[in-house]
Amino acid sequence: MQIPNQSISYWKDHGAPRSFTPLQTNLTVDVVVVGGGITGILTAWKLSKEGKKVALIEARKLTDGTTGFTTAKVTAQHGLIYDELISTFGEKKALLYYEATEEAIAFLKKTVNELKIECDFTPQDAYVYITTNEMRPMLEKELEAYEKLGINGGLAGETARKNLPFNVEEALVMRDQAHFHPVKFLEAIVQDMAERVHIFEDTRAEAIDGRAVKTTNGYKVIADHIVVASHFPFNDFDGAYFAKLHPERSYAIGVKSESDINEGMYISEDKPSRSIRYATMENGEKLLIIGGENHPAGRSDREMMRHYEELADFADRHFGAKEVLYRWSAQDLITLDRVPYIGRAHENIYVATGYAKWGMTNGTVAANIITDLIMKRDNRYAELYDPKRMKIKPADMKTFVTENAKVAKELIGGKLKSTTINIDALLPGEGGVVMVDGKKTGAYKDEQGHCHLVDTTCTHMGCETTWNDAERSWDCPCHGSRFSYDGEVLEGPAIQPLEKR
User: Which domains does the chain have, with CATH numbers?
Assistant: First the structure.
């Protein structure tokens, strides 16, 4: 099946916020929000409505990060998480997690209705399903958690079997969830606040100095409150987030198929993971969105394009899909206990990160919590999401040790890898590590035959990046930084580009 050469998100192809200029002077405001995804945009919008003077800065373009490359499910069903939350935090806080997310869904729905935003906000039930009985004990434990917490859902194997064209052993449903078009939604929010908020694109934050956010182009934004909503916190050494966040990459395709699902949003708990939902295109036809193929960022046992091919094969076998119209990937950050870090990191600094693939709801929860904290209002969810929380289960500590051991292995192993590939061996459109004048060098040969050469050493902590053939990028296997083929930063925590050669 034909798969597009270039990565393009369906959401980014159909509506994007207007363009804003970079920051070109020092600025003083009440609040500076760093990050132009759902958290940053909603936080800036909410605070501006409270009368705060707000600046919003984004390193690239608004919604260019994970927000524009999501599957856009608006749901509190975050996999089989509630049994785990009960085990880690107890029933009371597990219920708070559910209620915070349900409030976020209600907030999004209310905002869509009040502003009359045309963003395909569609109520849907959400399902997590299994295709083998191996995962049945975990599903049954999750069902018990639903019953303990009073979650609006339960077993729904028959419904899932009716709606999905392959074997489903069992499924759990969570009712009254939704999906939408995230970029159209945020475009309307940006337009609504454009006259009240100072918005700057192509403005990368590099450091916090007291009340000032310093940018890589030499300017400062001085504020009483600093909100770090830059996906991976750009100030990650302050809080050791590089050691407490696990970056994962996942993939999605948009296909026209012979058979569609008529209703519902689906995600598999067994492996390989599969996420399934539909979207309605501009012409009224349905686009089937299939996601999955998760792996640690920068570390995969196959070439990256192979992940798209696996999704396309799944779509062909089960849905009769013959054409892939869109393909895109996203990077997600997972905390040690799977609950995001949201809240006050220091006296005047707030952080929001670690959404674990559920950014549409967790990002909205973050905007609600941080707005309340800045406005000095009580928020009953703040303690649960507190980024300074210290309670760590032995299993979480094991994860911490294991992940950081892998980072150490990559840091050392990457330096020892050798190559004998000559730059002349690269075909147009290909990239990789080659030898140039006796030195290992990252090279990409564009369609015109011009070679772009970079030092492959990540500017964050010195790990060696690897070539991503699907996205034409250099990806760091240690902490997930990503760089374009010519070295520009695509995703943090790195701030500086790769050195050109």
Answer: 16-70+183-243+338-393 (3.50.50.60), 416-491 (2.102.10.10)
